[in-house]
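Following the same procedure, the fold was encoded as tokens, giving this record:
***
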Amino acid sequence: MNEVSWKLFAPLSIEGATLLIEHQDLPSGMAIRLGGAGGVVLKPQEAQELLLNLLTGESWVSSRLVWAAPRLHIGQKGYNLNERAKLALIEALQSLLVESQGVAVNPMPKETWQRSLLEITQQRFASVEEALPRLGEMLISLGLKGLCLWLRDGSGRTLKPIGQYPEAALPDELQPERHPVYFQVLERNLLIAADDARQDARMNELRDILIGRGLGAVLQAVLHGEGGLRGVVWIESMQPRKWSNADETLALAVAQVIERILRPLKDEIKIQTPERKSLAVRRSEFELNLAQALSMAQRYERSLALMRIQIDGMNKAQTERAAREIAYTLRQSDSLAYLGEQGFALLLSEVRWTAGASRVAHRLLGRLRAALSGLKVGIGIAMYPQDATTVEGLWNQAEQACQASLEAGGGIRLLTPGAAELQEAISQDGLTLHFQPVFNLSDLELVAVEALARWPRPKGLHQAGEFLPLAEQVGLMSAQDRWALEKVLEQAALWRPSGVNARFSINVSTETLIDPNFPSVLQEMLSAKRLPADTLIVELREEAILSDLETTSRSLEILKHLGVLVALDNFGSNPIPLTQLKRLPIDWIKLNPALSVSENAMLAKAAIDMVHAVGAKAVAKGLEEQSQLTRMKELGADHGQGHILGWPVPAEDLGALLVWGIGS
């Protein structure tokens, strides 16, 4: 490529650094360059993939470019993309793809939807209902039927139809009581592509609505707030159709337009006084909201969370900035109070996931630290019913947790029994790892060691099953996973010079797996230890995949691209459909220990054949007796693990296990 032929399209200013966006016309089509002469050149197809992942927030890896929100790595440089910078990059790529339409993966007509959407985003709409006709006209011009939007109804979970285009009688509202399966699908996905809407099992509960609207296919973009499901927009087709990657990009872009109207950019949010209802309420009103939410939680057996947030040394401008960052996370049903020198109180009126409040707190902590660089931020969380069952009890618990956090230098703190001790054990290296061998059943050669977390306590050594449920409940799973990964890679780096060929296997949680930053963080950890990626086997359970199929599948694809091996643990306890299992990039499948029992020999044989059919290795677990070892080998299992082959050993005995294949 001719260096002088590059044309500057846009320079983006990101945290004082400049990201150059350039393009050049070649005989094969347009080339797009990010980052100048030392940057990366993308084909239009690659730029379209990057655009899709910028829109979704999902990670994307190419030869010299890694996107893992909010970090964009180009060659040797890295950029933190805030919302405004990310939007500017999205708009630039959209505009360039318009010009490269002749060679794009999915060629668009001359008046492309990207161009139309850019024109729409430049307008200001008083309400989302005002924007729907413009969006609908654009979709109809692409040969689609139109669109329909549902949004969450206040503090409830019902989704009410807000508007549609073309205009017609609005459909029925969507209720979790009438559509339980559909709501589970909504909560776990960002995009739902139903190629044949009336045959898609996920749409069974909506059959009357689909028939009434005359729909053959529907592409649904789900709107998620920081606290949960916010709404869904349907892109509709009268005939069944195969939704393409370009269609999915379109749906996500439409959803982004709607979300920008519903939730303005943080720089556009102004606060006049702490009492402004759209942002914060008086303490008395806040306590009334808390009492009402508590009553609803008790009646319907739900959970809620109260957070106390204090930031040391804020001036007036920083207080307003902090308020905007906190308000950015609010749902309609949540409530925020400004308490003067005592900081803020935040009510999450409904928390449906065990670690939901902690996840919100971690996102909020990151936003506040980025916006208020250098200031100490303390967040205390009290959960109903785990921590307290009264307004006063929740308030006191959250206050004490916040003070404990500030005294420890900031961060997030819960006072759930055992939570503080576990958090300290993770942060102060108070956990340990034991390692259990995995052998090749054909020659009993050591092929891997699995890392198992242990917690030394005064009354004995606690196994993972005794304390990891608590870690999940209070939002410590990501921290525990990070600690375990660091320790495992330390051991792998320590023994690699000895010529050890065994891999190291480690379980990761759902919370870690759905984190879009996880693949890039893991890649950095491996590079820091100078370890090849195939040294590591990442193990996950079936429920981790099923909880968010699209996100976990994408994460696994990136891990596979990096070279990390993937194992599915405890197969058979919550079976994944075979068609889906075949599409997942899984190297090992570890069978449920129950399949090693003699009465389940026929089931074990069927499971092993299924594992081999999808191209994976079958690992027999729970081998306690010689008869089980012999039987699983005869049935075709590739590898084995269990006490008959070796007990878990502490790190100090790992050398004997790796070098000689024996342990205590």
Observations:
- The longest helix spans residues 477-495.
- The two ends are 61 Å apart (CA to CA).
- Residues 7-99 form one domain.
